[in-house]
Specification:
692 residues, binds iron/sulfur cluster, binds molybdenum atom, 25 helices, binds ligand MGD, alpha/beta, 6-stranded mixed beta barrel, 3 domains, Barwin-like endoglucanases
């Protein structure tokens, strides 16, 4: 960091408030971050900075930032202590728990921030390897891994989308205007160049106004996709040459989808059969087509994995693989694997026994436990006791399904350590609360893996201001705790610079090169080459998956109704006739974060449930009214907002509010997607609404 005082200085760096990692120009004066603007030359964000990124200075300077380590006192409040005292006590307690109950009794968690910031997840895993616990939890078990797995099962890897070159884009359960602003800008650009857009969503999102729009019933996307496959096959719109050369199982697929006629699917999905014919023809006839699906919206459902597979199959049978404008290969930058110290033999974490493919298939191992079974381990010691938790970058007590049960479980822990920038609902339950530095206060690597939007790159996250108080980067916490516990050999780094140099080493790019090229040095070069080995067991794109069949799952996707749907639970639906979707993103906030920034709070001051005026009319709910949303066993209090854009009979609850306004009071740990174990009741829950 240079020139902390005096004249204004501009640094080219990144916003890392969310995983988009947009390029920004950060203006610093007198040691303070005072302004942020988009970095125009950045090839991905191209000068776009969203409402949240624009408020980065207010976030960094927020008066409610945690600044010092805190220890819970006898009266239930917190006392300030030093890092040394906190680390000594935490180390001692962890060792005692390990001695009495074994290393498994200590679990680690990283949330959206932890999972998306390589340095946090790598160090959390490195520490757990040194300590010896397999119990590592992450949003990967309910956010985006289902989609990754479905593509791996189909293609042997994860092809990225290529919307900038696409003739036809489907936005399927994805509203980038809220959740991925740079992608929204790119899609708008592509539409100006003449591409077609199809939107499949229960809500008419802003981009729907420029699209062929289908207002689908939530949770029926697999039926829709399978009917599209039916039309594309029956009308001879497939890419036969591509299918013959590169895929396996086409005949079985063709026989399987016969029952998914557009007429039947239209009834299931609440759309017109002609709509399904129409979009199937447009998608298949386009010179190139790519589906941009939600980052988690289609995943957090009973049939999420198979829905993702059906979408992957649509790309494959139309030959839109490794072709400009379709889905294509895109390498990741080589990084060292810091995750586990050499020689550590990993075991299966809690929650994976029932869902073994979520943990291992072929030579792919995902180290993530399933947090849906974590409360049982804490409360009932099943399948093993969990007595202590370290939580970095997650507000899991509020953010994860069934927050009441998580809250109850956390109160039973012998040790809960939460490292965050703010006093979250989870931190309030902790024995120790540790202050984390914000990205502009530390040097690091910023990776965008391109998992949506399809551009992968590496930039330098520069330190532009000093952290307040005693805030630390997360890696330093794990390194210092590790050293205290005798694992010093695994944590040789002393500074951000040393760590960045180590992370960059395999790529051959130096820190200096990144400093000199602030809009990025390393870009994944898209590959349209079909000659590379397809890394499935058959060496082909697997429309039919023998691995799934052998494990007792559907080898070809089918539609399964959600547990609360009108078909599976007619009696429940009679009493609770509305479908609650939780978790569509709003531009003001990121998860549970940013609500204390006044300028953002003004944009979205209330905990909102959206409802169509006709639906509201049926229940006597006024626009702006305080309402109770209730399920069979729980209720929350929200404010109603009318919108003609939402499907009738559906309500959309914004998540990220705490206590009795938290959507996760209503969501459930079970039932789960049969393959991935994802929680099914986050997206379509039977409920009703009334004025409070
Ligand atoms: N501003 C902001 N951006 C964020 C986040 C944030 O909290 N705030 N969170 C980040 C994170 S962690 C994630 S995972 C991503 C989430 O990103 P996404 O999952 O892509 O979420 P959205 O972009 O809101 O789009 C979800 C859309 O899916 C629709 N939908 C819901 N259920 C169904 C369904 O059953 N079928 C279909 N077809 N559509 C459905 C909703 O109406 C909504 O328009 O966003 C990331 N970006
Ligand atoms: N009902 C419902 N619930 C949902 C969803 C939904 O759609 N509906 N979406 C789910 C999804 S997709 C996700 S990914 C999860 C997100 O779940 P979480 O990740 O648990 O929730 P976030 O609010 O994103 O929490 C991120 C936390 O990290 C902190 N933080 C930010 N930067 C740093 C840092 O550098 N270091 C440390 N130590 N902390 C930092 C923030 O202050 C914040 O408290 O929510 C899930 N919850
Ligand atoms: S989308 Fe907004 S919050 Fe996310 S990195 Fe870009 S500017 Fe920051
Ligand atoms: Mo997420």
């Amino acid at each position: 960091m240079e020139n902390p005082t005096g004249a204004m200085k501009m640094y080219k760096t990144v916003c890392m408030l969310c995983f988009q990692v947009c390029g920004i120009n950060a203006y610093v004066k007198n040691g303070k971050l005072i302004k942020v603007e988009g970095m125009k030359e950045h090839p991905f964000s191209r000068g776009v900075v969203c409402d949240r990124g624009y408020r980065l200075p207010d976030y960094v300077d927020a008066p409610d930032r945690l600044k010092y380590p805190l220890r819970r006192n006898q009266r239930g409040g917190f006392d300030r202590i030093t890092w040394d005292a906190a680390l000594d006590e935490i180390a001692e307690k962890l060792q005692a728990i390990k001695d009495e109950f074994g290393a498994h009794a200590v679990a680690l968690t990283v949330g959206s921030k932890g999972a998306e910031d390589f340095q946090i997840s790598a160090f959390a895993q490195r520490w757990r390897g040194a300590f010896g616990t397999p119990n590592y939890f992450s949003i990967e078990a309910h956010c985006f891994r289902s989609r990754i797995m479905a593509r791996q099962f189909t293609f042997g890897g994860y092809p990225l989308s290529d919307p900038d070159n696409s003739g036809c884009i489907i936005l399927w359960g994805h509203n980038p205007d809220a959740s991925e602003p740079p992608l929204a800008a790119r899609i708008n650009r592509r539409l100006d160049e003449g591409a077609k857009l199809i939107v499949i969503d229960p809500k008419r999102i802003p981009l729907a106004k420029k699209s062929i729009y289908l207002q689908i019933r939530p949770g029926t996307d697999a039926a829709f996709a399978l009917a599209m496959i039916n039309v594309i096959i029956n009308q001879g719109l497939i890419d036969k040459e591509f299918i013959d050369k590169y895929t396996i199982g086409f005949e079985k697929l063709a026989a399987h989808v016969k029952e998914y006629t557009p007429e039947k699917a239209a009834e299931v999905c609440d759309v017109m059969p002609s709509d399904i014919y129409n979009v199937s023809r447009i998608f298949a006839a386009a010179e190139s087509a790519c589906i941009e699906q939600g980052i988690c919206s289609l995943d957090q459902q009973i049939n999420g994995f198979q829905t993702n597979r059906a979408i992957a199959i649509l790309q494959a049978i139309t030959g839109n693989i490794n072709k400009p404008g379709g889905w294509c290969s895109n390498p990741f930058m080589r990084m060292p694997d810091l995750r586990l110290p050499d020689g550590y033999k990993d075991e299966m974490p809690i929650g994976c026994e029932r869902f073994p493919l979520f943990h291992t298939f072929w030579d792919t191992v995902s180290p993530y436990g399933r947090q849906m079974e974590l409360p049982d381990a804490i409360l009932n010691e099943k399948p093993c006791p969990v007595k202590a938790m370290l939580v970095n970058g997650s507000n899991m007590a509020a953010a994860w399904p069934d927050s009441d049960t998580f809250g109850k479980a956390f109160k039973k822990l012998d040790l809960l350590v939460v490292m965050d920038l703010f006093m979250t609902q989870t931190a309030k339950l902790a024995h120790f609360v540790l202050p984390a530095s914000a990205n502009p206060e530390r040097l690091g690597i910023a990776m965008n893996y391109g998992l949506t939007g399809g551009i992968s790159y590496c930039l330098l996250n520069r330190k532009v201001v000093e952290a307040p108080g005693d805030c630390w980067p997360d890696w330093k916490f794990f390194a210092e705790l590790g050293r205290r516990m005798g694992y010093g050999e695994y944590f040789p780094w002393e500074s951000d610079e040393e760590l960045v140099d180590c992370l960059l080493e395999p790529s051959g790019i130096s820190r200096q090169q990144l400093e000199e090229n602030p809009s990025g040095m390393w870009y994944g070069k898209r590959s349209y080459d079909m000659n590379k080995r397809i890394r499935t067991p058959s060496g082909k794109i697997e429309l039919y998956s023998q691995t799934l069949a052998d494990a007792g799952y559907d080898p070809i996707p089918r539609h399964i109704e959600g547990p609360h749907s009108r078909i599976m639970a007619p009696e429940l639906v009679e009493e609770f006739p509305l479908i609650a979707m939780t978790g569509h993103r709003v531009p003001a906030y990121c998860g549970w974060q940013l609500r204390s920034i006044p300028q953002l709070r003004r944009l979205e001051p209330d905990p909102i449930v959206e409802i169509h005026p006709s639906t509201a009319g049926r229940y006597g709910v006024g626009n702006g009214a305080d309402v109770i949303v209730e399920t069979k066993d729980k209720h929350i209090r929200m404010k109603a907002r009318y919108t003609d854009d939402l499907k009738q009979g559906v309500i959309a609850i914004v998540h990220g509010w705490e206590d009795n306004r938290n959507a996760n009071v209503l969501t459930k740990l079970e039932p789960n997607d049969p393959v991935t174990g994802y929680p099914a009741l986050m997206r379509n829950i039977a409920c009703r609404i009334r004025t409070a």
